[in-house]
Structures are given as structure tokens and as C-alpha cells.
Amino acid sequence: LQSKMHFVLTAFLFTLAQGIQFSFIPSPVIVIHQVAVYYCSVNHTGVSVQWIVNNTASTDLSITEKGIVTHGAAEMDSNLSIPGVPEFNNTIIFCIASGTVNEGSFFDTRNGTLLIQGLLSNVGDLVCTTINVCCFVCSWTIPYSLPEVPILGFNVNITSEKITLMHTNSTELSYCPSDFGIYNISVAGLNDGGEGLTDITQIILPLVLLSNVQVNIEKDNINQWILHITIQNVSVCVDVQFNA
User: Fold this and answer.
1) Mean pLDDT taken over the chain
2) Which residue among 23, 38, 74, 151 is buried most deeply as judged by most CB within 10 Å?
3) Model pTM above 0.70
4) Which strands sit side by side in the sheet containing 35-42, from one edge to the other?
């Protein structure tokens, strides 16, 4: 789920013709698995508030069995709790104030739409390139997230024969493994909802050897020269390091 919710936590207070104050407070931005809470109240004993969720009363069994809870139904003060699950994305919430005031009827509504910030989608443009024969650098672009729901960083998995897990707040990471080989790199963003979708790429570090040649000359017991030549191939990549 990659979705959005765009509410500022603001109390809307309306003073109506009959002198009744009608207050409506929408939920702040939430992420998946959190709970959205709406508040509604009036200041007259002849008026009560109720909630409508997607054109259905919040106290209806079809609503309550999904985990939506109304506190203070048909009272002057009430709040509505909605679980932050994908099913409730784009849910339309109405608070209705109605009753009798000075032998006259009273009716007014306030509403909002609940949009939920889900897990982050894939990072964009994941690319890894070699820096030299021993190192490579990976970069990516950040996925979309609501301004009120910050991205907490990125989990990076680098695998060959073993797994190296790193966390970075940057969108670039360089890595110098201790050996040549094929490396699989996966990157996923994090927010308060957890780890998002993963992007995967692959890079190959070819084997590069340096030859270490040692030459020794000595005389044997009959005074003849003996030449000893030792050739040792050594990989140029020796130390593991990374920059995040």
C-alpha cells in the first residue's frame, strides 16, 4: 500500500445561529497499523453527535465488526477510532450534530477523508557501479512519503557467500569487499510502518591478482650458483570497508 493522508490537526469550532458551538477535530496523519482518532462535540444538551463511515452509521454491525469503535455515540461529546489498515484508505468520515433547540430542529455536518500512509514503495533508480577493482558504489532515489511521515533510512543487504546488512540515512553507499565475486545488493526504505518494498541489483567484481616475485641467489657446496625464483599471486582486495 502506497497511500496518503493529508490532514492538519486543527480544531474546527463553529458557532451557529442558535448559539450552539460545534467542534470537529480530524485525525492527524497516521501510517499503516496506527489508529486514526476523530473528535466531535457540541455544547447544548438538546443536541447530540453521531458518526457516518462511508455512508453507514458507525454503530452498525458492518462497521463495528471491522474494528471501528465509537465512544459516546449519540452524546454531546464523541470520538471515533479507525484502525490504520489498507481497507480504510479513502474512508469518508462524517460527524453529524442534530437535535432540538428552543422547540426548533438543529442539523449540521462536518467531514473529512482518511488516507493512510502505507509501507514505502520501492526506491528508485537503484544503480551500482565499480569505483576500482576492489570497490563499488550504489545510489538510489527516495520513494514518496508524506511530509508528516518521514523516511527513517534505508536497509541495504549485500550478499555473496555471506550477508552484510547495513543501515544508512543517505541515498548512496560505497563498499569494498575483501574478495572478488558476484554481489547481490538490495535496498529498502524504512518508515514508522516498517520496511518497505525491496529493489535488487547485481554487480561483479572480477578477480585481479598481483604477482609477488622473490629472487634468491646462493652458492652450493661445490661453489656453483643456484637461482631460486618464487612467484606468489595475491588478490589486490584485502580489507572490508564501507561508507554510508
Assistant:
1) 81
2) 38
3) no
4) 12-15, 21-25, 35-42, 77-83, 69-71
